[in-house]
Amino acid sequence: MELPQFSLEGKVAVVTGASRGIGEATAMLLAKVGADVVVISRDQDQLERVAHAIGEYGRRAVPIAAHLGRMDQLAPVIDRTVEELGRLDVLVNNAGTNFFAPAIDMDERGWDSIMNLDLKGLFFLSQAAARYMKDNGGGTIVNVSSLSGIDAQLNTGHYSIAKAGVIMATKVMALEWAAFGIRVNSVAPGTVDTRLLNAALEVLPADLAERTLEQMRNVTPMGRLGEPSEIADVILYLATPASSYVTGQTFAVDGGAALYAATNAVRLDV
Q1: CATH number of residue 183's parent domain
Q2: Residue 159 catalytic?
Q3: Counting runs of H as helices and runs of E as strands, what totals does the chain give?
């Protein structure tokens, strides 16, 4: 059965944070439905691996090592995409970072590391992409926020603030750029089994890390962590013509965790 509304045949996508996890799963899925893909992260070796896998689908892939928290590295990503692949149709802003720290102990350096990558870099990369899309028939932008941007979480308040900013940035971009044929939406994953989650848990004592994971499962009605591919599936919908009348929206992909929080006033205490 063919579903042309989910096709990206002849299109070019940029996926950030694409060396693993949600970004890798998304890049692979977009390639599978026909897109050539630029994959971006700071890990060139892992990007080469992902690019090779994309090539197995018969699609072109360009790996670009870049730090998206540094403003001087953003516009060149868009320029190189157009130079090497000829166009830009889809941008998936997935790159991000997080760590555990109580708000009362947060220092400026830690704050800036989150804001520069998770919010500031996302906005200005989107701006660079939109300037191209505006003059070339439009496009789609999908931002990866988090359930933490909807419901505040203890000890990752900096992350919650940044991801709430992503949700508002999505609305602002969608409102202003709709006239240019650019749709902008976001996904808000709940707890997903990724290296980022595992890295955050590794700094905790083993017993606390295990209790934290158990807590995460307990506040998720579906009783489990999400998989990167499950987030990628929703990103695919938002990146393709299947969602042609959708813009400015944030889709929680969380196993029902937001419902649990709303009905039980639960906050994770890690």
Answers
A1: 3.40.50.720
A2: yes
A3: 10, 7
